[in-house]
Structure formats: C-alpha cells, structure tokens
Design a protein that fits this description.
Helix content: 10-25%
Number of strands: 22
Strand content: 25-35%
Number of domains: 2
Length: 382
C-alpha cells in the first residue's frame, strides 16, 4: 500500500496547515544532513510537505516522476532539443534570481535560506551563512552565478550540452569553492561546466568533460564533427585540489594537486603535484616560470604515458619519456647539489623528486665532468 504524505509526516489525514508545518519542522531538524540525519529521508519528508501545501495527498508514482523529469527524451531529436533548451533557460533565470538574492543578503550581512527552481526543472537550496559563505545543496544544472564570497557545494555540477547560451558558469570574486567531502560523496563536475575562484582555492572531486559526434551542419551525409564540452576550473591566485581529471578538461591555478590525468587534459600551474599512476598520451602539462613538478608514484611509472608533453612558459617542450629516462645523477651539478641522496638508477619521474623549471630549461645541458688534474693543480693559472 502506498504511504500517504500525511503518513510520511506522521500526522493524521486532514491535519491543519499549522499541524503540517510543525510536523515538517520537527522531522526536518531530526533528519537534516547537517545534524547527521539521512539525506534521502529528509528529501522524502520535504517533498511530502511541499505536496501537502498544494493539497496533494500521495507522492508521485514512478511513472509520474518520469513524466516530470527535468530532461526530456523519447521524442524526435529536434523536439528533445527544443524542450531541453526551454528547461535550461528556466534554470538560468532561476540562477540569476539566486545571484541577486545572495548579493542582497551580502550587502546587509544577513543570513537566509531559499529554494530556487521547481519540482519540474529541479530544485536547489541556497543558504547564506553568518560567516558570509554561500551553501548550495542540490544538483547545479545550468546558468551562471557570481558571488562575492566562499561557496560550499553539496551536489553535482553539470552544464547543458544542447545549449551554449545557458552554460554553467560559477564565479567567486573572493573566497574558496569547496565540495563537502567530495571523495566520500562522489560529487562530480562535468559536461563543460566552468568554475572561477578569482582570489581563492577550488577543492572538488572528479572532473569530467565530454566530446560528442554531431552531424555535419551543412547536411553532408556520413560526415560528423566533434563538438567539445571542455570543463574548466581556474584559481589563478590559489590552488586546485581534485581527484581525477578526465576527458576534455582544463585546469589553471598557482598550484594543482591531482591524482590522475586522462584523455585530453590541459593543466597550467607553477606548482604541480601528481599522486596517481595514470597520465595518458594526450595530456599537456604547462609549467609556469620558476615552477616545479613532482610525480609521487613510487612503484611503476609505466602508465604515465611517454607521449604526454610538458611545456615551459618560454615555449620549450619535452615528452615525458625524456624525463622518465633521465637519471638524476646525470643532471648538471649546478642544478642539483645533493645527488648522493638518490639511488644511481633513480630518474626524474617518481618518488616525489622535485623537477624545477630551471632543470627543464637546461635539460639538454651536458653533465659537468670532473676537472682535469692540470686545472686542479692550477698549472694554467697566472
């Protein structure tokens, strides 16, 4: 038997508006994730409350949920595209309203909580906290928001692939962008979403881009083009910390800490720390002037592709193969004075060895030979 919305809230059928509200508040406090409650149960309670506000006794069936889903499918391609653009436009308008609401609270340093979106297109909850941080709970699907402060995110972030006009673009003019427990919660950013922290850090989980094959716009039969949805994270004055960057991703920061880099990933940073054991052939690592790179894999570096490329700010470039086969003891003495601390077979890649910009800039410089006995004894000195 289907449980009614009254039963979900633990009240009798036909309860008053006040009784419904009080029951919701009590259960919401008990089950809210901020208090260690079950988030799925909280969503169920919240949905029951929203339904009862409009006089709806029973929750949606699976068939009704499918019909109301935020992304349409099952019709012809043009109709799907048209309807999804309408959804993206609605979401984008909601995020503009959310931006204005958060900015108004910021101006007077006030706190507040509000839902944006709808049950049809999807809802997210925004809360401005007393410390000025903006909390976002729910999946961010489309549209731009600019906020003058830190953002704490609980949910996934994506961007519509069917519309360039309403793409996801999150900008922080100050403060950090952080996922709440991103590894444990498996939150991800994908599909061409963009995040910029102008004066802070970005701390997230997995980041994915996407490439689609689309029919030739001129209608040529059998001809397909590749459309790129590149996901971009930028923290020009701070650091980006993430798990994996996969399939058409760009990262730009002062410092980047990452596990693995796979399938057309470009990174730009002054400090680059790579902890995983996988880098594919089409990865480009751009090292800024006076920067460093460290690869922390201790065992096998075979999955760090020889054909991935490191590019210096001055334009010099190297295949990773060159560094994987360069022994530390073969570096010029003036670039590394403590060679005796390394095994004779250790190379520049692996075990956390610090590769400096200067080492790469002078990569092809010959190893200094010991001075001849004549020079040592000063025979040619005046």
């Amino acid at each position: 038997m289907v449980e009614s919305n009254y039963e979900i809230l633990g009240i009798f059928d036909g309860a008053s508006k006040r009784e419904i509200q009080e029951a919701f508040r009590k259960l919401a406090l008990e089950h809210h994730s901020d208090r260690g409650g079950n988030e799925e149960q909280f969503k169920k309670i919240k949905q029951a409350y929203e339904d009862l506000k409009i006089g709806k006794k029973y929750p949606d069936s699976d068939k009704e949920k499918q019909r109301k889903s935020k992304v349409f499918s099952g019709d012809d391609e043009e109709e799907i595209r048209r309807r999804n653009k309408i959804i993206a436009k609605e979401l984008s308008q909601e995020m503009k309203a959310a931006e204005e609401w958060a900015a108004a609270l910021n101006r007077v340093n006030a706190t507040g909580t509000r839902l944006f979106g709808s049950k049809t297109v999807g809802e997210i909850e925004l809360e401005r906290k007393a410390n000025g941080a903006l909390s976002i709970k729910g999946n961010y699907l489309a549209g731009s928001i600019i906020y003058d402060g830190p953002i704490i995110m609980q949910g996934n972030i994506t961007s519509p692939s069917f519309s360039d006009e309403y793409q996801t673009n999150i900008i922080l003019t100050q403060g950090d962008f952080k996922f709440v427990n991103p590894l444990e919660n498996k939150y991800k950013i994908d599909n061409g979403a963009k995040i910029l922290a102008e004066d802070g850090d970005i701390i997230v989980g997995n980041v994915f881009g996407r490439k689609d094959k689309v029919q030739d716009p001129d209608g040529r039969v059998g001809i397909y083009l590749t459309k790129e949805h590149r996901t971009e994270l930028s923290a020009p004055k701070g650091k980006i910390v993430l798990e994996n960057a996969v399939n058409t991703v760009s990262l730009n920061a002062d410092s980047i800490v990452v596990l693995n880099l796979e399938d057309d990933v470009n990174i730009f940073a002054k400090e680059i720390l790579i902890y995983g054991n996988k880098i594919t052939y089409d990865v480009k690592i751009h090292l800024k002037k006076d920067g460093i790179i460290r690869f922390f894999e201790n065992y096998s570096i075979q999955s760090l592709s020889d054909d991935s490329v490191i590019i210096l700010e001055n334009g010099k470039s190297f295949r990773l193969h060159d560094l994987k086969t360069k022994k530390i003891h073969d570096l010029p003495d003036e670039l590394l004075s403590n060679k005796k601390n390394y095994d004779k077979n250790d190379t520049m890649v692996g075990k956390g060895f610090t590769i400096t910009y200067s080492m790469l800039d002078n990569f092809h410089k010959k190893h200094s030979e010991n001075k001849t006995w004549k020079t040592k004894f000063g025979i040619f000195s005046k």
